[in-house]
Write a structure and sequence with these properties.
230 residues; alpha/beta; Rossmann fold; two-stranded antiparallel ribbon; globular
Length: 230
């Protein structure tokens, strides 16, 4: 992971699991002893918000830059000026979670002049079980739309094909096949193959990309409500 560039921008289709990947990636960096920060730039459609598990980040010594501010009326979308600090302060290993659609990616475009291309990776998280990225043609169209809106070029692919708690090995391998097709067409490397920690030992060892085991931290709104007794 340290071989990745200092600033890791994580993007992907809504429902791809990009936030879960970003969260686990930040945790892994911190556990390896790096000064780590995570920023949530999704102010358009904040379905999963990294700040909801802020206490866990703080416990691990990770700086959190949120894209929402608290008010009497609830949460309001806002871009924190601290994002500039993450882009410029080379002491941080930064993970930036970007909105999962064209409108969300446009937010990243605001920082175009502040992003050093030599120290920035843009990972596109692909879930072959999502309708907008279920085949090579639609996946490439989606990547191109994100690049256009964000003014950034995708530098690598991340296979995160899943069905939440129903994910099977076959799902991951299905996504891997699609990633390989997209990789060949766009000449992009497959950087990581995401797997829940319970499945990772059953994956073939010769896959393109490094197997990246994750735990699940981000909960759906209705799961939170059930736990809260509502």
């Amino acid at each position: 992971m340290k071989k990745d560039k200092r600033v890791r921008i994580i993007t992907g289709h809504y429902g791809s699991g990009k936030t879960e990947f970003a969260v686990n990636y930040a945790f892994d960096l911190a556990e390896k002893g790096f000064k780590t920060a995570i920023a949530d730039l999704d102010i358009v459609n904040p379905y999963f918000r990294s700040r909801e598990i802020e206490p866990i980040f703080l416990e691990k010594g990770i700086k959190v830059v949120s894209s929402t501010i608290k008010s009497f009326a609830g949460d309001l979308p806002a871009l924190s000026p601290e994002i500039y600090t993450l882009l410029q302060d080379k002491s941080y290993e930064a993970v930036i979670d970007v909105g999962g659609d064209k409108a969300g990616a446009t937010v990243l475009g605001r920082f175009y002049d502040h992003i050093d291309k030599d120290e920035c990776d843009v990972f596109f998280v692909l879930n072959a079980n999502r309708p907008m990225t279920s085949n090579k043609e639609s996946s490439i169209r989606y990547i191109r739309s994100i690049e256009l809106a964000s003014r950034q070029k995708v530098t690598a692919l991340v296979n995160n094909t899943h069905l939440c708690g129903d994910t099977q090995i076959e799902d991951i391998l299905k996504g891997q096949k699609l990633c390989e097709e997209v990789s060949k067409e766009l000449n992009l490397p497959i950087k990581y193959v995401v797997s829940h920690i319970s499945l990772m030992d059953r994956l073939p060892k010769n896959l393109q990309g490094k197997i990246f085991p994750i735990n699940i931290y981000m909960k759906k709104p209705w799961e939170t409500e059930i736990e809260g007794g509502f």
